[in-house]
Amino acid sequence: MRTLCLLIIIVATSSAHNFLDIVKNYVHSSGKEGKFTNNRYDFIIVGAGSAGSVLANRLSENKRWRILLLEAGYMPNFLNRIPIFVGYFQLTGFNWGYNVEPQKNACLGMINHQCAWPRGRGLGGTSILNYMIHTRGNKFDYDRWASLGNVGWSYADVLPYFKKSEKFNVPGIKNSSYHNENGYLCVEHVPYHTELATAFLNAGQELGYKIVDYNGQDQKGFSYIQANIGNGMRCSAATAYLEPINRPNLDIITGARVTKILIDANKQAYGVEYVKDNVWKKVTCSKEILLSAGTIDSAKLLMLSGIGPKEHLEELDIPVIQDSKVGYSMYEHVGFLGLTFMVNQSVSLLQSKLILNPSTLLEYVLYKDGPLSIPGGAEALAFMSTKYAPDERPDVELLFVSGSLHSDNGQVLRKALRLSDDLYDTVYKPIEEQDAWSIWPIVQYPRSVGRLTLQSKDPFEPPKMDPNFFSHPADVEIILEGVKYAINISRTKAFQAYGSRLHDLKIPGCEQFEFASDDYWRCAIKHLPSMMNHEIGTVKMGPPTDTFAVVDPQLRVYGIKALRVVDASIMPAMPTGHVNAGIFMIGEKAADMIKETWKSVL
Questions:
Q1: Measured in whole angstroms, how far is the alpha carbon of residue 523 from the centre of its chain?
Q2: For residue 463, what are the β-bridge partners?
Q3: Nearest Cα residue to 192 out of 435, 438, 373, 402
Q4: Read out DSSP for 507-573?
Q5: Tens digits of per-residue pLDDT, 7-46?
Q6: CA 67 to mean position of chain CA atoms
Q7: What DSSP string describes 574-599?
Q8: Name one GO molecular function term (predicted).
Q9: How far is the C-alpha of 383 from the C-alpha of 380, rounded, in Å?
Q10: 551 labelled binding-site residue
Q11: Which end of the chain is more exposed for a tag (fewer CB within 10 A), N or C?
């Protein structure tokens, strides 16, 4: 029955979006060398994620320029476009499969105390397996970037690029000051909402909060998520920026894993080395190398190429070309997964009721609507300020999920999150097939800072990622305040109409504390943190006076000519919310900066 249902989805989806046509439209050089000889590329882009896809599109608008886009992964299949399946793709080859180093203060309920850090490997990058939540951040986030010496990155500077990127279509929100309907990137509400998601918004109003457009003037308040979804289907970076174009001056090579940036004796980048089909290749360009491999792999590639901390590179016998603080200043939004609220009505998302339900399947196949259009159960959010907020920006996000870690009977989420058997079997197995909902409280401005290093100079070995989660106690305390807000939300009339009650089985390792006491929650937070795939900062942007800056405000690598980094790794401080919208903005802004640099050069 399950196989039949999946076949129905595949056939219907492929008929609506002809797979072969998509391939023809934009992966026109996948599986072969480029159409141009090595020395005839103007730009080489490494990585087809949210920023790399933007660069490929915008730079290829100049018909005189020849662009090469190299991507280690391949094109996802059409099941990836169905939002409810987000968790499944984190268990496939479309995920690099990275884990953080064993943690002392976090991930204690995960196998070997290691949280998973999913990163997309394919056309679209992490946008092929994230939860598609589109949040720009707060005005003051970008004004802070500018105040740190990053000229041109204030909110007034970046807002036009947020607008330029988006094809905004959210009912009831028509504000040209903040939104644009003519961009490439779909931004919509999920077409279907559960009763519980509506209850979440009603609960917010009951507590005195507004329903807001958090990408508009006011961020604090409650809202359905704005998502990168178009017609009920995932709108990844590749879907948005690569599928619509078929330009003869753009080559896209998939399955091409870049292992090194080539830099000459004058410290000028001139090409890259990559491996495809077990064959080592080199390709060169005349203008710039644009590194868009993401916070983890951009930093890794720089260090493998001799750009990084001198002592670290020398330890690994990597010739040092530029001593630089690559890998430092690494931050991540981290939250808490363990708040589960049971309800007495069949209103949540249970996998057994979705995947095997013919009416649900047909609703999606025919109309791209219904529960399958919900990205992994994430439906709504709230931005709030705790007593620790240092300024007017919200310092905690409450992400509403119309299910819990047990909702798939332990088939996907427990594996994707690396939950230990002891934790899952103790807390979640007893409530399998029971309706529940969750809130994930997430700290917005984490104080705990991590570092990324190389394990060896072997380009095929994963880097060493130590985020030092909760090394600063403030992060736990802010999440704890979010826990209290979430519990208050569950007690509103809106949720009591469903008999909401806090699931009270204790997390193993926290049994010594009274359930729901502050000390219990502190312990639980350290056992069940949520990773948000929002790591930033390993190639920090900053002025020359910033000793930790790796790139300047034009995103040019200090000390190296013809090399820029364009992705989340350059973010000098964490924005509020989710970072993917900001990465699209960075790609759009970088494309204009590059065009300005070369406008007088043919």
A1: 27
A2: none
A3: 373
A4: PTT-TTSPTTSHHHHHHHHHHSEEE-S--B-TT-B--TT-TT-SB-TT-BBTT-BTEEE-SGGG-SS
A5: 444 434 443 343 333 333 334 343 344 554 445 899 999 9
A6: 25
A7: PPSS-SHHHHHHHHHHHHHHHHHHHT
A8: oxidoreductase activity, acting on CH-OH group of donors
A9: 11
A10: no
A11: C
Cα separation values, 160 from 93, 164, 294, 592, Å? 36, 6, 23, 12
**Which sign, positive or negative, has the C-alpha torsion 300, 77, 590, 263?**
positive
Contact of 189 with 172, CB cutoff 8 Å: no
Please state whether beta strands 41-46 and 279-291 pair in parallel, antiparallel, or not at all (unpaired): parallel
Task: Tell me, yes or no, if 534 is annotated catalytic.
Answer: yes
Convert the pLDDT of each residue in 397-441 to its tens digit: 999 999 999 999 999 999 999 999 999 999 999 999 999 999 999
| Cα–Cα distance for residue pair 113/104, rounded to 1 Å | 8
Strand partners, 282: 273
Catalytic one among 179, 333, 503, 578?
578
Structure tokens at 189: 């509400």
Taking the domain 82-119+191-224+334-449+462-531, which CATH number applies?
3.30.560.10
Q: Are strands 221-224 and 166-169 parallel, antiparallel or unpaired?
A: unpaired
Secondary structure element (H or E) that encloses residue 314, with its range: helix 310-315
Q: Which of 257, 253, 261 is nearest to 299 (CA)?
A: 261
- Asked if residue 186 lies in contact with residue 230, where contact means CB atoms within 8 angstroms, the answer is yes
CB 48 within 8 A of CB 60: no
User: In angstroms, rounded to a whole number, what is the distance separating the alpha carbons of residues 43 and 288?
Assistant: 5
Handedness of CA 344, 350, 356, 359 (dihedral sign): positive
Strand ranges for 138-205 from DSSP E: 166-169, 185-189
141, 576 contact by CB (below 8 A): yes
Q: Given its phi and psi angles, is residue 343 left (phi above 0), alpha (psi -120 to 50 degrees) or beta?
A: beta
pLDDT in tens, 45-74: 999 999 999 999 999 999 999 999 999 999
